[in-house]
Each structure stands twice: as C-alpha cells, then as structure tokens.
C-alpha cells in the first residue's frame, strides 16, 4: 500500500517538474516610471531641494543574469531661483533670477546586478531581489526659457530590483545626470567668468524613480543553455 502511494505521488510530480523546467526565459522588459527630478546647478541650495514630479518609460534587454541594457525616457519640470542660494551673484542682486523649465531626458545605460536577478526557474541561483549600479550616456532637452537647450549627459545611478511575479519587475533607482552645458537653468556662467573643461561648472539633475516593467519575448530554452 505504501509503495502504491509513493508511485502515485511521483506520477503527479513528474509533469509538474517538467512544466517548471519548460517555463520560458524572458529577454525584454517594458513599462513606466514615476518619480522626482531635481535640478543641480548655480541656483539650487541642496541635492534634493526643489524636487519636481516626473514620469517616463523604461525598456530593458536582458543580456544575462548580471547585465541588463536599459533605454529610458522621462519628462518633468525643473525649478530654481537665485534667492534660494547663499552664493552672491552681482548680476541678480537687485532683481533675483528664477526659472521654471520643462526637461526631457533620453538615456541608454548598462545595469550591473550584484547577484543573478530573476527566479530559480529563470537561472540557476537567481534571486528575486538584487541591488545594482548603472552607467550610461543620455541626451537632455530643456524648453521654457529664451532658447531651447540640447546637450549630452553622463548618467550614473544605483538602485534595487524586485521580481514581483514571473513577468513583473519593480525597481527603485536614484541617479545623477551630469550635463555638458551650463545653460539648463537659462544662465551660463553667472559670475561672467567662462569655465574651461567638459564638465567644469556645468549643470545637472538627479532623479529618484520607481518603475514597473512587464517581461516578454520568451527565449527558446532548447536553442541555447545558460546552465
């Protein structure tokens, strides 16, 4: 009787094990992001001062359990004023300067996970929670001032990812974009002393964002083996 019970249990467990092994690996993610964007420049008193809402889109290409390639775009407002900083600017002593501009950013970045990200069905030893670092290049567009500004930027960030379900991914990320221009706030070199160097005395902005992405594009498990 005991042997019959054991044989029946194995018979039902075999198809379940086969289904788990045949669960697909998803190579792409796409979704949205909400968060805050903060202007960093001559007219900002702190790294989180004057943060404004932002929203955007995120897409990832899963290269391997440790490496993801991310394409992201977002837009939001940035604000600042010479009244909010302790620095004395002679040109704005009598009439303080303030701005409220629309900023749009597009960037491509590599994300390195500290340990394999996914579920055990995706990769051997994969974990549903992992911290990561990111770095890449982007393009900045600012409107709302006297002239539109377009400039390149370098992006550095860090965050944490959590796999909510087999196809749902949650990520919280903080990053800084170092722009190649000092005109994001509409004023270049407020001391009237021209700066020299690619990133010396240039503007920038930071982002704190929460994104939710959906995995798709299943990989053929019998074509290549990652184990």
TrEMBL record:
InterPro entries xref list: DUF6089 (IPR045743), OMP/PagP_B-barrel (IPR011250)
Keywords: Signal
The UniProt record lists the keyword Transmembrane: no
Annotated Gene3D superfamilies: 2.40.160.20
The keyword Magnesium appears for this protein: no
All copies of domain DUF6089, residue ranges: 28-223
Signal peptide boundaries: 1-20
Protein name in the entry: DUF6089 domain-containing protein
Organism: Hoylesella shahii DSM 15611 = JCM 12083
Biological classification of the source: Bacteria, Pseudomonadati, Bacteroidota, Bacteroidia, Bacteroidales
């Amino acid at each position: 009787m005991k042997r019959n019970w054991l044989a029946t249990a194995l018979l039902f467990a075999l198809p379940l094990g086969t289904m788990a092994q045949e669960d697909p690996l998803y190579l792409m993610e796409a979704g949205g992001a909400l968060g805050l964007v903060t202007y960093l420049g001559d007219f900002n008193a702190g790294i989180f001062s004057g943060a404004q809402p932002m929203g955007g889109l995120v897409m990832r290409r899963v290269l391997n359990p440790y490496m993801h390639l991310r394409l992201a775009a977002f837009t939001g407002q940035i604000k600042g004023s010479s009244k909010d900083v302790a620095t004395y600017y002679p040109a704005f002593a009598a009439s303080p300067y303030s701005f409220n501009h629309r900023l749009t950013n597009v960037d491509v970045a590599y994300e390195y996970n500290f340990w394999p990200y996914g579920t055990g069905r995706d990769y051997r030893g994969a974990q549903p929670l992992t911290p990561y670092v990111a770095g890449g290049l982007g393009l900045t567009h600012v409107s709302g001032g006297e002239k539109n500004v377009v400039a390149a930027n370098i992006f550095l960030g860090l965050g944490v990812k959590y796999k909510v379900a087999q196809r749902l991914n949650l990520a919280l990320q903080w990053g800084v974009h170092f722009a190649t221009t000092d005109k994001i706030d509409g004023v270049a070199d407020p001391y009237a002393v021209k700066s020299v160097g690619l990133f010396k005395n240039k503007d920038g902005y930071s982002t704190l964002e929460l994104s939710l992405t959906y995995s798709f594009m299943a990989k053929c498990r019998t074509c290549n083996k990652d184990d």
